[in-house]
Amino acid sequence: MTLETIASTPIEGQKPGTSGLRKKTHIFMQPHYLENFIAAIWIGIGGVAGKILVLGGDGRYFNDRAAQVILRMAAASGAKKIIIGQDALLSTPAASNLIRKRKADGGIILSASHNPGGPEEDFGVKFNTPNGGPAPEEVTERIFEATKSINSYEIIATQDVDISTLGTTSLADMEIEVVDPVADYQTLMETLFDFDKIRDLLNSGFSLRFDALHAITGPYATAILEGALGAAPGSVVNGIPLPDFGKGHPDPNPIWAKDLVEHMMAKDAPDFGAASDGDGDRNMIMGSGIYITPSDSVAILAANAELVPAYRGNMTGVARSMPTSRALDRVAKDLGIECYETPTGWKFFGNLLDAGKATICGEESAGTGSNHIREKDGLWAVLFWLNILAETRLSVAEIMEKHCRQYGRNYYSRHDYEAIDTEVANDLMQALRAKLSTLAGEVINGRKITNADDFAYDDPVDGSHSKNQGVCLEMEGGARIVFRLSGTGTEGATLRVYLEDLVEDPDRMDLDPQEALADMIAIADTVAEISSRTGRTEPDVRT
Ligand code: VG1
Ligand code: CO
Fold first, then answer.
1. 8 A C-beta contact, residue 49 and residue 20
2. Are residues 53 and 112 in the same domain?
3. How many domains, the chain?
4. Residues 96, 113, 297, 486: which is the catalytic one?
5. What are the C-alpha distances in Å from 408 to residues 228, 400, 403, 507?
6. Residue 113 known to be catalytic
7. Which ligand is nearest to the CA of 345?
8. Nearest CA-CA partner of 114 in 278, 240, 276, 255
9. Alpha-carbon span 266 to 512, nearest angstrom
10. Could you tell me if the CB of 277 is within 6 A of ligand 1?
C-alpha cells in the first residue's frame, strides 16, 4: 500500500449544475476525470483531513469503481472515516439522513438521478454539506474554481476494499464503516408516519403498486412497504437496482413510468401507484384512474399535514421552486403560513429548512420533502400519501376532488424540448430576456400579461443572491408560463416550458390538462418562437 501523488492537469467543464456534476459515463471514466473532481471537492471544502464523510450511490454503471477511487483518495488525504452503504449503495435521501444522524462533515453521492445509466449513458457526483443538503452555490463555485487549477492529486495504490460485508474495516489510517443502506432510513420513516394505521389500511384489501424502475428505491420499498407495512408480496415491481436501470430512464413521469400508468389506468387498477427515480429522491403519485401532478401532490400533503404524526401542529411554512404551480400558495394562505418561492434545485430549500422557516417543500419535477432531511425524498412522499389515505379512507381521486373543491385547480404541465442545439436554446432565452421590458401589459391570444421578469432570489436566511433563474410571465386570472434551460442534461440543451392556469369554476375541474392549458401552450410558442427557432412542433416530454 503506497501513497501516490499523481500529476494531472485541469479538465474543462467540471462545473456542477442544478444537482452535482453530470456527464456521460465514458467522460467520467477518462483518466483523471473523476479524480480531478474529487480532489477539487477536497479543496472546495477546505481539505478532507480529519473529516468524516458519507459515501454511496444509486448503483448505476461505474458506481462501484468510483466508490473505490474515492475511498483511496479520501484515505490518501487523511480523512478520518468514511461511512459507506453496503456495495456502495445509498439513496440520496438515505445519504442525507446518514450525514445528519452521524454528524458527518458531508457526503458524496454517486448519481445522475433521473438520467439513464450505463457505459453510453450518464454518471454524476454530488457533494452534500454537513446539514445533509446539496452543496449551496457558494460551495459548488469553490469546487469549480478548484477544478481549474488542479495539477496533482493524492491516492493510495492498493487492492479494492471489501464493501460488501457490513462492519468496520480500514484503509491506511482511515476507518471505513459499511452500513445497511436501508436500516437508518427505515427507522426515520417509522418516527414520522403512523405505521400501524398504514398497516391496517394495507390489510384491509387496499392494493398498491410501487415501480422502482430498476433503480435504488427497490430495496427500500421492499423492506418498508412489503416488509414493515405488509403490502402484498409483488407490490414492489422492478425492485432490483440494475447498473443500466433496465435500459430505461429512471424518471418517474408519465412517459418513463408508462407501464405504471397503464396499470393504474386499467379497469382492475390497484388503489395506489407510485414510482421513484434513479437515486430515490423523486416520486410519482397515482390512484386508480388518476395521475396527481407533483405540484398538486405537495399542495395536498401540506393541506393534510394535520393527519400525519410528525407534521401535526408543526407546519411553520412551506416552500416551492418558482416553476412549481401555485397550488401550494393557496394552501399556505389558508393555513396562515408563509410560502417561499425559490429557484429550481433542492439546494435552495436548505437554509429555509435549517432556519425552521419551512416544513414541507416541493418542486414540480416530482420532488417533495420536508425538514426530516435536507433532500427531497421519494418514499417519504409515498408514505405521506399512504398515511393520509389510511386516516381518511378516501381514494386518491376523492382526495384530489375534495382539494380542488376547496382550493380551485391549478392546471399544470411541463413541456420539455430535449437535446436541442445549445446555441439555438441560448438564443431563444436571450431573445425572450430582451423582450421582457415590453411584454407586461401586452395581450397575447386574448390573455393579458401582467408581469414579465427573469426570476432572481434573495435568500431570506443568508442574503445570498441568485439571478437569471428563469423567465416568468404572469397573466391575468392566475396563469403563468415559465421558461428555463435545464441544468442537469448532458446532451445539447433542454428547454423547459412550465404552464399553469388557475380554474375556480367547479364545473371545470375535470378537464384534460393539455386542453385546459391550450391557451398557455399557444402563448408560449408565440412569445418564445419555440417552433420556428427549434424546428420542433411537439415537446419530447409532457409531465
Ligand atoms: C431538474 C429539475 C429540478 C431538480 C433537479 C435535480 O433540474 O427540474 O427541479 O431539482 O433536476 O433533481 P433541471 O435543471 O434539469 O431542470 V434529481 O432527482 O435529477 O437530482
Ligand atoms: Co433524483
1. no
2. yes
3. 3
4. 113
5. 37, 11, 7, 11
6. yes
7. 1
8. 278
9. 18
10. yes
Indicate the residue among 347, 376, 407 that finishes a domain.
407
For the chain, first and last CA: distance in Å?
51
- Which residue of 216, 344, 490 sits with most ligand 1 atoms within 8 Å of its CB, as the best mutation to test the pocket? 344
The answer to whether residues 212 and 139 belong to one domain is no
Give the CA-trace dihedral at 529, 535, 538, 543, to 10 degrees.
Answer: -70
Looking at the fold, whether 222 and 323 belong to one and the same domain comes out as yes
The finding on whether 288 has its CB within 6 A of some atom of ligand 1 is no
Residue list, CB under 5 A from ion ligand 2? 113, 277, 279, 281-282
Q: Judge residue 336's burial from the number of C-beta atoms within 10 Å of its C-beta, 0-12 exposed, 13-18 middle, 19 or more buried.
A: exposed
Instruction: Give the structural domain span for 155.
Output: 2-180
Q: Tens digit of pLDDT for each residue in 57-104? A: 999 999 999 999 999 999 999 999 999 999 999 999 999 999 999 999
Predicted TM-score (pTM) of the model is 0.94
Nearest CA residue ID for atom 2, ligand 1: 365
State the Cα–Cα distance between residues 401 and 44, nearest whole angstrom.
Answer: 49
Q: pLDDT tens-digit profile of 96-153?
A: 999 999 999 999 999 999 999 999 999 999 999 999 999 988 999 999 999 999 999 9
Distance 331 CA to ligand 1 centre (A): 24
Cβ–ligand 1 distance for 343 under 6 Å, the answer: no
If asked whether residues 455 and 486 sit together in one domain, one would say: yes
CA distances from 153 to 4, 5, 176, 398, 543 (A): 8, 6, 21, 58, 43
Mean pLDDT by groups of 10 residues along the chain of 543 residues: 94 92 96 98 97 98 97 98 98 98 98 95 97 93 96 96 97 97 98 98 97 97 98 97 94 92 97 97 97 96 98 96 97 97 93 96 96 97 98 98 95 95 96 93 91 93 90 94 89 94 89 93 94 94 89
Domain termination residue (choose one: 122, 154, 180): 180
